[in-house]
């Protein structure tokens, strides 16, 4: 089951979407005005269906606004099927589009295909505080920009981010980075944390908190 957000100013369209996708076992939240949604709320959804033509704010503007904070698929619902419109939607972070009027089977198939693909990708990728970790490549990105972590710095960030909210002592972090037989000084961890914070602050985030007398934790 996926948690899906559907945004469209036409209540009739939302009723069709909700009925069709809930029969597939998904939970569907319907919203007619995206201006009523706090940005942080977008993070809870596994997929977003987004109408293009809406009063107040159009779907393209919504996508630009939230793409840097959400990692889930965004599928545009649009009656605009000119090539330049499609290119615009995909270039600003949309993953797909469904032309109106659409069939129920097409809607279900497109949504489920993206959810399957997202599930596979999330086996190796996760997002925390806007930082995207690629567990296979051992790389971290912010706003699609590679963060220049050293190998040790990446290991520390991955450890803290995966276990966000959990406090790790310098000794535990040291064992993760260097192993039980490491020959570096424990003060190296303090220096690594200092360098990590400097690199994260360069993109205006600071998720690593010092818990005085105990260690460090990654805060959401």
Automatic annotation (TrEMBL):
<dbReference type="Pfam" id="PF00486">
    <property type="entry name" value="Trans_reg_C"/>
</dbReference>
<dbReference type="GO" id="GO:0000156">
    <property type="term" value="F:phosphorelay response regulator activity"/>
</dbReference>
<dbReference type="InterPro" id="IPR036388">
    <property type="entry name" value="WH-like_DNA-bd_sf"/>
</dbReference>
<feature type="domain" description="OmpR/PhoB-type">
    <location>
        <begin position="123"/>
        <end position="220"/>
    </location>
</feature>
<keyword id="KW-0597">Phosphoprotein</keyword>
<dbReference type="GO" id="GO:0006355">
    <property type="term" value="P:regulation of DNA-templated transcription"/>
</dbReference>
<dbReference type="InterPro" id="IPR039420">
    <property type="entry name" value="WalR-like"/>
</dbReference>
<dbReference type="GO" id="GO:0000976">
    <property type="term" value="F:transcription cis-regulatory region binding"/>
</dbReference>
<dbReference type="Pfam" id="PF00072">
    <property type="entry name" value="Response_reg"/>
</dbReference>
<comment type="function">
    <text>May play the central regulatory role in sporulation. It may be an element of the effector pathway responsible for the activation of sporulation genes in response to nutritional stress. Spo0A may act in concert with spo0H (a sigma factor) to control the expression of some genes that are critical to the sporulation process.</text>
</comment>
<dbReference type="GO" id="GO:0032993">
    <property type="term" value="C:protein-DNA complex"/>
</dbReference>
<dbReference type="InterPro" id="IPR001867">
    <property type="entry name" value="OmpR/PhoB-type_DNA-bd"/>
</dbReference>
<keyword id="KW-0238">DNA-binding</keyword>
<dbReference type="GO" id="GO:0005829">
    <property type="term" value="C:cytosol"/>
</dbReference>
<protein>
    <recommendedName>
        <fullName>Stage 0 sporulation protein A homolog</fullName>
    </recommendedName>
</protein>
<dbReference type="InterPro" id="IPR011006">
    <property type="entry name" value="CheY-like_superfamily"/>
</dbReference>
<keyword id="KW-0805">Transcription regulation</keyword>
<feature type="domain" description="Response regulatory">
    <location>
        <begin position="3"/>
        <end position="115"/>
    </location>
</feature>
<feature type="DNA-binding region" description="OmpR/PhoB-type">
    <location>
        <begin position="123"/>
        <end position="220"/>
    </location>
</feature>
<feature type="modified residue" description="4-aspartylphosphate">
    <location>
        <position position="51"/>
    </location>
</feature>
<keyword id="KW-0804">Transcription</keyword>
<dbReference type="InterPro" id="IPR001789">
    <property type="entry name" value="Sig_transdc_resp-reg_receiver"/>
</dbReference>
């Amino acid at each position: 089951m996926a948690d899906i957000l559907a945004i469209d100013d036409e209540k009739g369209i939302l009723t069709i979407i909700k009925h069709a996708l809930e029969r597939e076992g998904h939970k569907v939240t319907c919203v007619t005005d995206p201006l009523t949604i706090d940005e942080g709320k977008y993070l809870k959804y596994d997929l977003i269906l987004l109408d293009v033509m809406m009063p107040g704010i159009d779907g393209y503007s919504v996508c630009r606004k939230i793409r840097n904070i959400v990692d889930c698929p965004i599928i545009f619902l649009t009656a605009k099927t000119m090539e330049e419109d499609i290119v615009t939607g995909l270039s600003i972070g949309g993953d797909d589009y469904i032309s109106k009027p659409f069939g129920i089977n097409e809607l279900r198939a497109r949504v489920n295909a993206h959810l399957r693909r997202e599930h596979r990708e999330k086996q190796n990728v996760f997002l925390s505080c806007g930082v995207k970790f690629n567990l296979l490549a051992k790389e971290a990105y912010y706003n699609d920009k590679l963060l220049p972590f050293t190998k040790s710095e990446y290991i520390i960030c991955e450890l803290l981010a995966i276990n966000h909210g959990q406090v790790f002592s310098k000794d535990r972090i040291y064992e993760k980075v260097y192993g039980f037989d490491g020959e570096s000084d424990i003060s190296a961890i303090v220096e690594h944390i200092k360098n990590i914070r400097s690199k994260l602050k360069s993109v205006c985030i600071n998720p690593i908190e010092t818990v005085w007398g105990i260690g460090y934790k990654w805060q959401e």
